[in-house]
Amino acid sequence: MTTLETHVDDTTFSKYESEVRTYCRNWPALFDTASGSWITDVDGKQYLDFFAGAGALNYGHNDPTLKDALIDYVVRDGITHGLDMSTRAKGEFLQTFQDRILAPRKLDYKVQFPGPTGTNAVESALKLARKVTGRESIISFTNAFHGMTLGSLSVTGNANKRAGAGVPLVHSTPMPFDNYFDGTVEDFGWFERVLDDQGSGLNRPAAVIVETVQGEGGVNVARAEWLRALAELCYDREILLIVDDVQMGCGRTGEFFSFEFAGITPDIVTLSKSIGGYGLPLALTLMKPELDVWSPGEHNGTFRGNNPAFVTATAALNKFWADDLLTRDVARKGAIIAEAFDEICTRHPGMSHRGRGMVAGLVFEEASLAAEACAIAYESGLLAETSGPNDEVIKLLPPLTIDEDDLIHGLSILREAVAVVNPAPKAVTA
Amino acid sequence: MTTLETHVDDTTFSKYESEVRTYCRNWPALFDTASGSWITDVDGKQYLDFFAGAGALNYGHNDPTLKDALIDYVVRDGITHGLDMSTRAKGEFLQTFQDRILAPRKLDYKVQFPGPTGTNAVESALKLARKVTGRESIISFTNAFHGMTLGSLSVTGNANKRAGAGVPLVHSTPMPFDNYFDGTVEDFGWFERVLDDQGSGLNRPAAVIVETVQGEGGVNVARAEWLRALAELCYDREILLIVDDVQMGCGRTGEFFSFEFAGITPDIVTLSKSIGGYGLPLALTLMKPELDVWSPGEHNGTFRGNNPAFVTATAALNKFWADDLLTRDVARKGAIIAEAFDEICTRHPGMSHRGRGMVAGLVFEEASLAAEACAIAYESGLLAETSGPNDEVIKLLPPLTIDEDDLIHGLSILREAVAVVNPAPKAVTA
Amino acid sequence: MTTLETHVDDTTFSKYESEVRTYCRNWPALFDTASGSWITDVDGKQYLDFFAGAGALNYGHNDPTLKDALIDYVVRDGITHGLDMSTRAKGEFLQTFQDRILAPRKLDYKVQFPGPTGTNAVESALKLARKVTGRESIISFTNAFHGMTLGSLSVTGNANKRAGAGVPLVHSTPMPFDNYFDGTVEDFGWFERVLDDQGSGLNRPAAVIVETVQGEGGVNVARAEWLRALAELCYDREILLIVDDVQMGCGRTGEFFSFEFAGITPDIVTLSKSIGGYGLPLALTLMKPELDVWSPGEHNGTFRGNNPAFVTATAALNKFWADDLLTRDVARKGAIIAEAFDEICTRHPGMSHRGRGMVAGLVFEEASLAAEACAIAYESGLLAETSGPNDEVIKLLPPLTIDEDDLIHGLSILREAVAVVNPAPKAVTA
Amino acid sequence: MTTLETHVDDTTFSKYESEVRTYCRNWPALFDTASGSWITDVDGKQYLDFFAGAGALNYGHNDPTLKDALIDYVVRDGITHGLDMSTRAKGEFLQTFQDRILAPRKLDYKVQFPGPTGTNAVESALKLARKVTGRESIISFTNAFHGMTLGSLSVTGNANKRAGAGVPLVHSTPMPFDNYFDGTVEDFGWFERVLDDQGSGLNRPAAVIVETVQGEGGVNVARAEWLRALAELCYDREILLIVDDVQMGCGRTGEFFSFEFAGITPDIVTLSKSIGGYGLPLALTLMKPELDVWSPGEHNGTFRGNNPAFVTATAALNKFWADDLLTRDVARKGAIIAEAFDEICTRHPGMSHRGRGMVAGLVFEEASLAAEACAIAYESGLLAETSGPNDEVIKLLPPLTIDEDDLIHGLSILREAVAVVNPAPKAVTA
């Protein structure tokens, strides 16, 4: 075997990689290593990561406990690829997930491992809901994001992403997410009415799929009472409720599941991103036992048994979910972010913010300023991305485990960036 | 942090995991470690693996070179999760893939990293073909398998898997795969006729998607001349040709790409399974540069930058594709399998075999015998699965790197299993 | 030739006709002849017709002028069946329609003759809108009715009728019709918002299809300002506006087109039912000249040139639309109906009414009473049907040409029928 | 009432009528009256009609017996428009259809009156088949024509007509019609194979819809044994068989139903075109009683009770189907056509012919000659149209009642037209 002298630079990607690439366009550094809340590029420059793998790194980069577990597993030749064979690593994950997560919350769910990405979990959830109910139609919400494969894309809101399908996206109807009309319209007025009106023309839905906080959609936060009303509406009309917790689960909002605060129990839950703990691909579809009508192999996928991810996932559950420290941490750090954003919004015109736990959105009335502020922050060593239908929101998803000092440091970079793009009006008099 | 005492046994999976699980039903052992062609269960029993992660482990389990590269990377805190940011690991993979694979074969492809599973690659290929052509319809082949998400499922043949969709699967039309009529019917008679007949009722297709050997479909092998005729037919009518090389790529048939032997150049190629080398999730969509019309982020996915998989993928390319040793090995071992199968088929009634390189199918006229033989082989420590529309084929996908002795040992287990379920007729006289 | 002695009685229909038959179940008489507002059964019993062929007989049964024109045409061997050949009858209709209807209203429309039924006209309108815009999706309204063929059914609201499709009905999204929330919600709040929000998930529509008064949907009346706002909304966003005037056109609401009162000019208009004048099948699709992008024969139909219907249609235009007498008549008789309904609603609890021109709905809070009242009215010699999602509305569509005495007579039958099923509360004291 | 002085000429149509018009482009005369096999234009020029309303005028134009019945009915104020109320005219038709057609053929069908056009009948047939089976997919045949509304269009072959849909046409798969491969391929090899192969990817069909002779498709004639094999194949696999007899029924091929000669009994039959007898719109859907699972009103249409058409339909059944004279006539005249075509094909190069009963196709290898010959024939006073995917076939559909002399006269016009466009090669010696 000969190893090539591999020279990598900026042009490597523009020459060889598809035009579909996107984050690297805003953050052109060539990254190399990462630890905790920091990423380092090949030149040794460090970046504070307020993006955290779009929510896949709730526990930060390369957490040492998880890292040790992973190395141990690789060193001792733990089986890497296992499809859905029974493996020790998978069994330990299942048992730990039961003991650390489901049992304490009195949740009774069967666990499916679809292909190891969020969109695979969503696709399996939609298929299952359709199989159980014998109906085709799914209700999604304005500004939802559920994934890029054809089934998931049909329930995703973004027009550009939808256009990429190349076929008409059907079997789904959008409904207004919480607060879509700024409180001026009754929450489920339209939805209930068309469900109950035999002449409405709405195909009776198999399921409703909802994010409790829409990350990609612009950090739109559903209230507990809205979620409860939605759950009740679904229950009353025998429509399944799917919570897509791919981005907001695993503690992002404080509790493990983002729906716990509302006291609801969805019929089906999807998890991915941070469930593997270490940034390794893994996804889960949880379903109430009576909904587990799959026949063996009816939905499968080669990498559904990604055993290194089971190992880090188990380690993460043991490290972070044996007590409520992380949940309390998220509340405290979330408050720090909210306070900083409050101050920014008070000082600068045309701004507002929203969020829950450690997902926070800083909203610019003039949409283009969000990207400009992020670009300036990047120059100052902070990674933060925009979201929302017009990219008008700076979306913060810092590691839940971030040091308070780092958090405050990052917020100050952001504050300065905002000050550049959207200066506070000069006071006429003091 | 407290670590639970996690007890795992058979009941862990039946209690907690969905009924969708399947391989673990045929192979009820609780697996723990693996190395090369062997898997070991928690009781220390060893199993020879002729299944190799359904083609995801062409280089065997936990290849030591790749393992070292992976451990090095994890130890030195190489970035694990990178979305589509530029990372050293990704750049090195791109350059190595260019140098080891594309350039020597004079192939000019841009590389897209969709979500890290085969079905993600197929979905992106279908979307791209539709975007490029402005047409919706896709031609697939009888007994094709392309994945379980809605777009991929629509071009997959298996009726049970299709039924799982819960919505009608549309925008696709099946055509007969090579030799579907045992040579009695002209290869593309039907396909060409309906394409060229303005009154045929066939929606004009955006693309044809084909496997050169259909693994899940029962090890159906397309001939070089059939593939060439297909490529020509597509070219003449401005239909894109997608080769789904998820299972048959990365050397399974000898050469890196399974279509090389036919001298064709598909417009789009999907790779996954063994491209990561170590069983870690990774997928690639290759497209001719002029087809790279994606807008940034139009198709994305959280785990599309699975950097540990880039590291093992690069190591695998360097180890196995710097010369033609592996290709020659595959030819030699493929011949051993074919010879053994020839002998079995001669000795036992109602059997035939087919294959190319190191994918081989042993076909039983009486379909149920295939599963019975695999069950007996499992008892003797061999993992082999069935495929085909009626599960009538024992499908062998041993690691390409298997020792010849192990290969011969496994084949003898199989031979004995066949002898039990389908005894050779007694000779009347010697 | 032998003519059979054909005996017809009640059992003829139950024995030979499909279970799909419906009106004959409520009105079991065996009808024979008809004239003006009256139908006579085989036993000579006369029925006053407040139903008028579901709006197909705006000029009553067998109007003598039209009858003479029809007999003349048949007697002189005028061509009966003409596909879309140029015939004198068709030319005279086209010119008369231009002179009597389009030119005086300064409407510039090209005329298409699709198959001679309303649903054919709607199908052609939807196809044309899709062809012009290159989009698939259509916006329809709650409780819309547009027809029973697959394209029309997809924009129809009634759940039972939709279920008959046997395939999922897609490419359409319902929006709330005027006053769907009893004035509590801004008219187009939801529609405008999802159109303008790039993240809403609504597929961008080719067209909006609307009835100005929803007959089948329960006599729901759109206000002029609502229609104007809809037209403006469509214009601003380059969405085509289709007014389905199949039931409400030809003077039902007073003016020839039901949208005239609102001062809007739809892009496409469908006409059928009363356009033939005599109850003979005919349908028109009107389109702005710049939308006439059909290629020859792209939409056709064997009976699109029903020449006897052209003859009666022309005669009807000449008789009824040479001046504004009919329009004024409709206003006057409409007021009589409204007054009678006002009185009924004042006297009886749980009732309301609505309507425009000579379409009127009498609404029962207790839905089943509507059918009961109609059954009683039938016994007294009045034909009136129910509509609305729960059949809670008695829908009146008397001939526009009805004698005032007959109108008042029919209303009194109805008043008495209501009194039986929904007695006025006894006054405690006078 | 004022009657306009209506001036009609060529420009009336080009000014006011949509570009979708088609027949009038080839036959620019302004037609006025018609009788038997002859049409007369406003200038008194007579045209022999070998087109007969695309099969809607099997009994010629304005048959005097039917004309008398129609005039009587109109004069005596027979009810014109009846929806699905029971009327004497409808009852007499039902009984006569039973007595003259169904009973003598021992056919047990319930009769549905959908909207009065062929495409309405086809739509209802497809809906019913889907409701009965719970499946969505329909098998159609290459070069089929079933109508222009969305459901019917999805099973129609012509690419230009399909493109007009503006949405992808799905839920249908074309199979090769009889003789599609000129006898070189087994009839149902492909169809049976994909039906029976669980891995074929074909969605299991609800029904097969077939024409016994494809008129629009180019006069493609199915053999009796092919139809029998198709019926058996459907029966064995519990797929419903729909014969679309809209164009080929009512005696066109000799017997009343075009499938009688094959000895099959379809599950569902559609009739329209000539069923009304006089060119008035009417359509029937016949279904085996056990398939009559419609709920009342589940499929409806305003003109489903076109009573004048019931009257002429009844008169036609009594006049033409009380004995077998017409059937024998059709055989004799069909033989005259075939003989004439034989002679033409012998004399002129690159020609062939096909047909059954009195539908006949004269096929040109050089497609454009067909239209050229028709244009010349038109100048000589003969109406004949082209069909086939490339308009390469002159399709003859003369009235079944045509005089032999007229038939021979028309054929001689055609023979001369062919001689002009495709001259016979000069003999080298006499």
Write structural notes for this entry:
Four copies of one chain form a homotetramer. Chain A has 430 residues and is of the alpha/beta class. Helix content of chain A is 36%, strand content 16%. The first copy, chain A, is built from 14 helices and 17 strands. In chain A, the strands form four sheets. In chain A, strands 4-12-11-10-7-5-6 form a seven-stranded mixed sheet, with helices on both faces. In chain A, helix 5 packs parallel to helix 11 (307-320). Chains A and B meet through helix 1, helix 2, strand 1, helix 3 and helix 4 of A and helix 1, helix 2, strand 1, helix 3 and helix 4 of B. Chains A, B, C, D: Keywords: Aminotransferase, Pyridoxal phosphate, Transferase. Chains A, B, C, D: InterPro entries: Aminotrans_3, Aminotrans_3_PPA_site, Dat, Ectoine_EctB, PyrdxlP-dep_Trfase, PyrdxlP-dep_Trfase_major, PyrdxlP-dep_Trfase_small. Chains A, B, C, D: Its cofactor is pyridoxal 5'-phosphate.
Helix content of chain A: 25-40%
Q: What's the N-to-C terminus distance of chain A?
A: 73 Å
Structural class of chain A: alpha/beta
What is the residue-averaged pLDDT of chain A?
96
Adjacency order of strands in the biggest sheet of chain A: 4-12-11-10-7-5-6
* Count of beta strands of chain A: 17
- Quote the beta fraction of chain A: 15-25%
Describe the sheet with the most strands of chain A: 7 strands, mixed
Spans where pLDDT lies below 50 across 5 or more residues of chain A = none
Pair with the biggest interface: A-B, 132 and 132 residues
Tell the overall outline of chain A. Answer: globular
Count of runs of 4 or more consecutive helical residues of chain A: 14
Rg for CA atoms of chain A: 22 Å
Oligomer: homotetramer
